[in-house]
Amino acid sequence: MLTILIFIVLLGLLVFVHELGHFVAARRNGIKVDEFGFGFPPRLIGVVKNVETGRYKIIWGSKDGGVKETIYSFNWLPLGGFVRIKGEDGQNDDLDSFARKSAWVRVKVLGAGVVMNMLFAWFLITTVFTLGLPQPIDSSQRAAYSDVKIQILEVKKGTPAEAMGLQLGDEILTIAGAPITTLEQVSGIITDHRGQMLEMRINRLGKEMVLSGMPRTEYPANEGSLGISFSETATVSYPWYESIYQGAVATYNITLAILGAFGSMLAGLFGAGTGAPVDVTGPVGIVYLTKQMSDLGIAYLLQFAALLSINLAIINILPIPALDGGRILFILIEKLKGSPIRRKTEGMIHQIGFMLLLLLMVVITVRDFSTFHLLEKISGLFS
Asked: Are 87 and 97 in contact (CB under 8 A)?
């Protein structure tokens, strides 16, 4: 339950930040916002400030009470937030409506959510660099740190390492009884025990445990015989002023990496890829990853939140109907043809896009159930 609660708070915060970007951009460009809500309707309570008197009015439930000012609301479903911008559906032509503004202003308002998610990711990564986070280091850097250890950075799916129960962040202490001090030892001992059982003693969040498994004699080149990636790590932190720069660089590099993954995935769809698999996960997979990150500590969880924020920004800016990028695409088409696309046609295209996105989410969720063996675990609760 705690993991699900953390996931809800995390997802809610990212969506709220995104909608806050739309809200601020709309207000700064003279567009009236009918409602800015935390969570999703139905509304629990709303607050309205009377511009003339400066007094606040409380609205209970979903009725607007005939108010003309912006309603700031708290809603029953704590899954992010939303913003209702006047005229964004094209049905209002007042001077302070979204539909009446220039193409450039509308693009700014639509793109502001993406910008806010990127800025939020930068803030989170800056915070992580200030707090300090175990990071891979070169052997030449050992002397600069007092907490150097060898940690597992990745466990490949369907490998002996996964069957053993090894996890991201595990510190390798011994393998086959031999104390581990170098990366070469890890590689060498695992290679020498291909096809043989070996024991690995690890430290997981302060708790030592011994896990057993058999490295494979035949395996994909990018997995190794056991199926793990590992590195020497140490807790690296920076002064706050340097963390700002390091956070910007990391945000940029992560964005490029995600764009590269998207590119590989699209190339694979059209048969032009290299064949390298690209993992795609939905809410179920994100909940599992949230559990892993929260177990490792607050710095890991913040880093994971930053990664999700960047992903949310990139997905939203894609020219897909129903997303911000899709709506921006229609504005660009409007500029090119000199007149807007019929509202009914655009609305229908966005509805189709939304339904396809929902279908894709269902497919990914079903696959997640299989990947994480959820049906077996649920049935085990009743056996």
From this structure: yes
